[in-house]
Design brief:
mainly alpha
Length: 63
């Protein structure tokens, strides 16, 4: 099965279940977690995956 390009999808589980392309941000999440900051401000223009990254973190840490 070929992979799909999911434009506008902001749900990590949906991307994985539907075999869509996903830019892995695991290293960024690890660096962020290891940093131990109380507050993190992520400033990027629209379309850079901020919401998808936060959904990935939520999915990873959910029971």
């Amino acid at each position: 099965m070929s992979r799909k390009l999911a434009v506008g999808i902001q749900n990590f589980s949906h991307l994985i279940q539907n075999n869509c392309f996903y830019v892995d941000k695991t290293k960024f999440i690890k660096d962020w977690w290891d940093g131990g900051d109380h507050v993190t401000l992520i400033t990027r223009p629209r379309g850079f995956g901020k919401t998808l990254m936060l959904d990935t973190v939520r999915t990873f840490f959910s029971p």
